[in-house]
Predict the 3D structure of the following.
Amino acid sequence: MHKYLWQMLLLNAAALAFYWVGVGEAIARETETRLILQKTKPQAASTTETLATEITSAEFLAGIAENGDRTSPLAETESSSSIRQTASADTSQRAMSQLTSVSQLSDVQPTDWAFQAVQSLVERYGCIAGYPDGTYRGDRALTRYEFAAGLNACLDRVNELIAVGLEDAATREDLATIERLQEEFAAELASLRGRVDALEAQTAELEANQFSTTTTLSGLVWFNLTGAFADGDIQVETSDITAPPVIRPAGRDPVTGRPLTAEVTDDPEITFSNLVWLTLNTSFTGRDNLVTQLAVGNGDSPANVFASAGLYNTFGVPYTDQTAGVDIGDVTVIIRELFYEFPVGDDVQVIVGPRVNWYRYFDANNFTFFLNGTSSFNSIGSTLLNTIDRGSGAVALWQLSDQFRLGVGYLGENNEFLPSDLFRTSSNPDEGLFGGTNTLTAEITYSPSSTFNVRLLYNRSNLNAVFGQVGGAPGEPIYGLLDDGAGGGLNDATADTFNINFDWLITPGIGIFSRYTYSITHIEPGDVDAQAFQAGLAFPDLGKEGALATLSYMIPFSVLDGREFLVSGGGDGGVQYEFEATYYYPLTDNISLVPAFYVIGNANNFSDNPTIFVGNLRAQFAF
């Protein structure tokens, strides 16, 4: 116990130091630049060219609707900055609509000498461009420059008249007025021409070097500082305690037929890992979207050391403390998602692709979204869903009414963490899209208001046996591993899973959320019935606007019937439970700190296992 307290003190000290470094380094600067330029060409009287460009900071976490996955390190995205560029023909046409009297420009004072002077020139020569809403918009940051732009238009108009031999059209008084205006606005006129030249050069540079006219890039980066400690030796079900947790095997005692067990006697070291997702969104019509997401990471949470066979990346593992690809801990760039979505009519959205993320479209919850809500693999979604984290196939979303939405989908397993030759994924011609592990899902969402949502989900899964066992990372709803109950192998299994999930923002500062899942896994000797439960409190804007604190209680895998078929995960009949506290704190629109703390009791479903404590500090960057 003293060792545990000392290690927790070290972790908290490191976390506190990490926090203050992050605060000191994070400087938020939101800029908004508006350039509005009007210029009348001498060759074409009363013709204007308008360029309007806005660059604004973005809300990085809005609109992402994915919850997580448990097969191995991963989840979703997508936050991004926004660059909006507008130069439509409609906008240009409105900007070119001129007013022929300065008195119609309501934001220019008639008492100004410059107003009276330019009024005379405008009414004689029709040389200044205003806006159809009756404003000159000179009350913005560049009032004198805008005024100089109008003066420049009048100069160009007079020069045109002189160039075509109509010198008499401009009176001496007008020429004297123009000369005086030129002198008074000489600096602005010179600066205006310089700005036009600079803007044209920048525009040419952007056109020559732009990445794509149809594709935008966004990204998420995470740093994870994680420690895990147990208040004693932890009993685990495995036949080889020396094997890495991700491939820990399970077996039975040949004499008693009971699952083999071992003890974890040493606490793991504190780790510091990273995870990066880069997402390319490509639109060809403005309503469709081709998504390509790349991932790279080296996470392997220390909490995995305490897991029984088949329970890798389950209890106490922060969702973003994960790797990318098959090789745990290696830095390998992989394609995490690849799909195309498009509308069919006004109410139906179709998603199709070789690597569709199931969690983007099903079992969502406003308070368990991993970017700013609950934070562990067990808390961001139902622990009994889904055997397909990402797969090949299609999903359809139908907005039945303002209050009801229906989602259906079929996916054949195509997970970036599972080798196709071993796990019989959809890209393997021996099994294909329909012969391997696959899942069929239907979910209906009822949203009577913007603050309350309830979702009912049914999932039918086909689970392939690996080395004669069903379950493990690609085997939900089983948490652990199944055999025939006597050490013999299994053929493929099927499973039916039912899930109810709701979130309710009771007041602007308090919300509640919950899930309940019931599953039946069908194997040749019999059935395994299990349930999972989660309930929690949420506190939006706690301490700062945009912040979110969550408290959650979970039972990830309670076996109701058929425990004799579990070669791992059944324990001694105990029920594992978990407490989680997570606090999402945005430093800026782009940078956030997320401390989280997890307490796990009856680990691995052993009622006499001591308590496990896990602490995590996450730095999150969105761009």
